[in-house]
Structures are given as structure tokens and as C-alpha cells.
Write a structure and sequence with these properties.
Layout lengths: L6 H13 L14 H16 L4 H4 L3 H4 L27 H5 L2 E3 L6 E11 L19 E10 L1 E10 H6 L6 H23 L13 E5 L8 E10 L1 H5 L10 E5 L5 E5 L2 E4 L3 E5 L4 E5 L8 E7 L5 E6 L3 E4 L28 H7 L6 E4 L9 E2 L9 H14 L5 E4 L1 H11 L9 E4 L7 E4 L6 E4 L7 E7 L8 E4 L16 E13 L6 E14 L5 E5 L1 E2 L3
Length: 541
């Protein structure tokens, strides 16, 4: 016979669960006495002995009897904290260029540079007759002024969002971190191609032709307009979004200001008749300072954006796309932000092209195809060799890094690596010491040898820059060689700061906290000849 558990055991257990195992205070609110425990047991017994029917509970009692599934939603919400910052922050130039906080910066930096010392008589003839004195040498001196520019980003958080984020992440701190990262990314673009001084102007009228067979471009008389794009203009323009012209920015303080996007004025329109089956070809004269070109095509007066190319030509073989930006959106030269920006490395090279820095624009070549880099036959690229030779012959320097896009890295690799120059397959011993070898396919150029140095040559790293437009190469000497450097010679370039990165937490005027991250700076490129740029490069197939 099964023993019946005394009722007092259940009452004692209920009291233990409610009151706890420690010495309970019977004066505490909610303290369960022995009598209350027995009353609770009586109520529970009565309830279990008389369960409610479905109509007593609610009309949909049959639903309650269904099996609980994941679809019911009675599950734990597993949220991983904190939020994942899945955006790239690549700033190689910003990382490499030294920063110099000026002690008393004022409104601008001013400096003098002696660019040459010119000997008396013949510049390279040192001889002086017996008893005579040499003539007096002269100097080539330039005065430079660099105004400071302000860079920055802002964001805000409401009190509700701040308190609701507790336990997930410190949103006040994360806002400031993300502001800093975005400011650095924008600063990198400015160091590469900020434009205060260079206007692209108005491109020449395009040259058109139509030929070939098999194309599906409908027969018509087409009108073509060209617009040149700076590096920043190329980065900020898309076929779907249109060419970046000008933007009125709504400032966080309630005011507005205007930024130019990096596009030239539009060219005059050229027209060309094409029959069904023919391809329409367009070429425009290269514009110094441009790394890309936007092409507006259509019937006269109805031209819309149909292509953005990184060479100065384009071809059109298929029917034109609809719903694109109209050429009428281009009403002025939007290439520079005079008074707001500083000039970046590429802009400085363009401004000094042919006089105090190396610049080469490859010939137009065949319309729509352009001109490619060419192999020297001895494991190098002719156009890069020409640049290195010129920088040595004219300025006695060698670049310390060559920046390229993924397109040019692929092209250079194809031109210098072949079965005749270097094996494309690499054998590696097993890491675990096992027998045999593992095979690594593919290869890429990591260094470029420059023979034009007094010590027998040097290896220059070839690196991909995240922003550099396809079709452009930037060579840069981060340091001047020893024969330039003295205790009075500064770095090739440095970022001068009136006020380096700082966070501005604005006074609250609503239940919202505003943050800003700013820097006041100027890029000082003391030696413009330390940069070399090649543009208008077509990809190597």
C-alpha cells in the first residue's frame, strides 16, 4: 500500500520556496505563513478538481490545444552584441604621411623653398683662374602659402536611443568612433585628390565616327557630349546616380553650404549618323587633371548619361539606356572646391605637370579601346620605365611606392610575368613536413625594380590604393634621398594641423546629443617633383 504524504510536507515545501532557506523575516511583505500556505493548497486543490471548460476560458479554446512550434514565437531572442562594423576603413596615404601640429598656426602656413642654386658662369664648370675670385651664384626661390581647411562629420543620438542601447553597446562611444573612421576615409580621398586650385574647364568637342556591323544600336543621328571627371568626380559619379555636380549640404546647425562634386563643364555637342548594325565611336581631347570621362548620348537636345570611362573615348553598340541623368544637369565647371579644400597629391602633380613633376597621359589610340601599357621585352613596362627615368634625369629621385588600381596591377602582371620571364606556378614544401609539394597558382607583381639610382637600383613596392581610378598610376617618393636631406629640409609632404582630430560634443538644446569629429589641416607638399602620374591607360586584355 502506497504511503500518503502528509499535507504538512507540501505546506512546508511551499513556505520554503516562497520564504527562502535563510532565517526569514515574518514581517517582510509577502511572507508566507503556515495558515496561508494551507489556504493556498486548498484553493489549488479546488481548481484542479473543477477545470474550466473552453467556453468558460475563451471562445478560441481549441487553438490553445494546438502544439507550440517555432512559428508561435515563444522563443528566446538571441541578439549578438555589439553591432558589427562591416565597412572598410583603408587609409594608406593618411597612415604614411606624418602629421605636424603647429605651435602657433594662425590662418595659414607660409614657407620659402630654394629650388635651385645657380653657379656663376657656366652652371657645371667649376674652374677659376689663378688669383681670380669666382662670380657670385644665384638662387631660385619660391614663396608658398597654404591655407588650412576643415574636415569633419557629425551625428546625433536621442535620449531614447541612448538608454535603449544599454546592455547592447555604448552608443555614445560608437557614434564617435564611426564618425572618426568616416572622417579618416574622407581625409584619405582628400590627400589623394583634394582640389582647391585646378579647374578642368570645358572639354573640346568630341570627335565621332560610326562603322562596323552586327551592333544593335538603332539607326539615328546621335548627339554626343563629354564631361571630364577628377579623381573625386569619378569616385562620386555613377551611371544610375549621375555625374556629381554640386550639392547643397544641410548643416547640423541649420545653415547650408555648397560642395562641388568634381566634374567639368560639358563640351559642345557633336553629331553623327549611324545605321543599324554600326557602332558609334566617340573621342575627346584629354583634359589635364581628369582621370575619367562621362558620355551623354541621344538625339540632339535629349542627350543622357550612357557611359563613364577611364580613357578619353567610348563606343556604343547597343540601344541606349533610359532613365539616366540628362546633359542639362551639367551647367558649369564643378571640378574644384576653391577656398574649402587643400590640393591632394594627384592635384599637385597635375598643377606642376611638365614643370616640376612628372605627368603622362597615354595617347587616345583607337576610339573605344584606348592605349594600353606596353611590355619592354625585358620584364618591365615601357611607360613606367619612362616615368622612372624622367624622375631621375630631372630631379634625381626615385619613387618609394607605386600605387595602382586592381586593373593596372593585373595589366602590369600580364605584361611582365610570362613563361619566358618568370614561372607562374610556385612549388612549396608541405608545411607539415609531408612528402611532395603543394602548387600555388597565379602570380602578381609586388615590387618594381628601378635601375635609375646611384647605388645600382632599388625595389619599389607596388600597392593597390582603394580609391585610385582604373587607368591611373601614382608614383610617390615618401622621402627625399640622402643627397637632398639636411637639417633645414622638411619631409617631402606632411599634414600640418592647426587642430588635429577632435570631438565636439555640442551643448544639448533638445533631448538629443549631437557629436562632431573635426580636424583643421593643410597638406604641405614641399617637393611636388616627388610625385609622378600616368593616366588614360586602357586595360590589358
Amino acid at each position: 500500500m502506497t504511503a500518503i504524504t502528509p499535507r504538512s510536507v507540501f505546506a512546508d515545501r511551499l513556505m520554503l520556496d516562497i520564504n527562502g532557506v535563510q532565517n526569514a523575516d515574518d514581517r517582510r511583505h509577502g511572507f508566507l505563513t503556515f495558515n496561508r500556505a494551507n489556504e493556498t493548497l486548498d484553493l489549488l486543490k479546488a481548481t484542479l478538481g473543477n477545470p474550466m471548460s473552453g467556453d468558460q476560458f475563451y471562445d478560441g479554446a481549441e487553438d490553445l490545444a494546438k502544439t507550440v512550434t517555432l512559428g508561435t514565437g515563444l522563443t528566446y531572442y538571441d541578439l549578438r552584441a555589439p553591432a558589427l562594423n562591416l565597412f572598410p576603413t583603408l587609409t594608406p596615404l593618411r597612415n604614411a604621411i606624418p602629421r605636424n601640429q603647429r605651435k602657433n598656426p594662425g590662418d595659414a602656413l607660409r614657407y620659402k623653398a630654394i629650388t635651385a642654386i645657380n653657379g656663376s658662369g657656366y652652371n657645371w664648370t667649376p674652374f677659376v683662374p689663378e688669383g681670380k675670385r669666382a662670380g657670385r651664384m644665384t638662387y631660385s626661390l619660391v614663396n608658398r602659402t597654404l591655407s588650412y581647411a576643415t574636415i569633419g562629420e557629425e551625428d546625433s543620438i536621442t535620449e531614447e536611443a541612448m538608454y535603449a542601447s544599454e546592455g547592447f553597446e555604448d552608443e555614445n562611444s560608437m557614434i564617435q568612433l564611426r564618425l572618426m573612421l568616416k572622417t579618416m576615409v574622407k581625409e584619405e580621398a582628400g590627400i589623394l585628390a583634394g582640389n582647391n586650385s585646378l579647374s578642368l574647364g570645358t572639354p573640346a568637342t568630341p570627335t565621332l565616327s560610326a562603322s562596323g556591323s552586327g551592333a544593335t544600336l538603332p539607326a539615328a543621328t546621335y548627339s554626343v557630349i563629354a564631361v571630364a571627371l577628377t579623381q573625386l568626380g569619378y569616385m562620386q559619379s555613377t551611371l544610375g546616380g549621375g555625374v556629381a555636380t554640386t550639392q547643397n549640404v544641410a548643416s547640423a546647425d541649420g545653415s547650408t553650404f555648397t560642395l562641388n562634386g568634381g566634374a567639368s563643364n560639358k563640351s559642345a555637342a557633336a553629331t553623327q549618323a549611324a545605321t543599324l548594325g554600326q557602332t558609334l565611336f566617340a573621342t575627346v581631347a584629354p583634359v589635364t587633371g581628369a582621370v575619367a570621362y562621362a558620355w551623354y548620348v541621344g538625339t540632339s537636345g535629349n542627350e543622357t548619361l550612357q557611359a563613364i570611362t577611364t580613357i578619353n573615348s567610348a563606343s556604343f553598340a547597343a540601344p541606349l539606356a533610359g532613365s539616366r541623368q540628362a546633359a542639362t544637369a551639367i551647367a558649369a565647371d564643378y571640378s574644384s572646391n576653391s577656398g574649402l579644400a587643400f590640393d591632394g597629391l594627384m592635384t599637385t602633380a597635375f598643377l606642376n605637370a611638365g614643370a616640376n613633376s612628372y605627368f603622362a597621359c597615354l595617347p587616345s589610340g583607337t576610339a573605344g579601346t584606348g592605349t594600353q601599357l606596353t611590355a619592354s621585352g625585358v620584364g618591365s613596362v615601357n611607360e613606367i620605365d619612362t616615368m622612372l627615368k624622367s624622375m631621375w634625369d630631372n630631379y634625381r629621385i626615385s619613387p618609394t611606392v607605386i600605387y595602382v588600381s586592381s586593373q593596372e596591377l593585373k595589366s602590369i602582371t600580364k605584361l611582365v610575368l610570362s613563361n619566358a620571364t618568370s614561372p607562374l606556378l610556385k612549388y612549396e614544401a608541405q608545411a607539415d613536413g609531408g612528402d611532395g609539394y603543394r602548387l600555388t597558382a597565379n602570380g602578381a607583381v609586388a615590387f618594381y625594380f628601378n635601375p635609375y639610382t646611384p647605388d645600382g637600383g632599388t625595389k619599389i613596392p607596388v600597392k593597390i590604393h582603394p580609391n585610385l581610378a582604373p587607368g591611373t598610376i601614382l608614383a610617390w617618393a615618401e622621402k627625399l634621398p640622402a643627397w637632398y636631406v639636411s637639417n633645414e629640409t622638411p619631409l617631402v609632404a606632411e599634414m600640418l594641423t592647426r587642430k588635429d582630430y577632435y570631438t565636439q560634443m555640442w551643448p544639448k538644446v533638445t533631448r538629443q546629443q549631437d557629436y562632431g569629429v573635426y580636424a583643421q589641416e593643410a597638406l604641405a607638399v614641399y617637393a611636388p617633383f616627388a610625385a609622378g602620374v600616368i593616366t588614360n591607360i586602357a586595360p590589358t586584355p
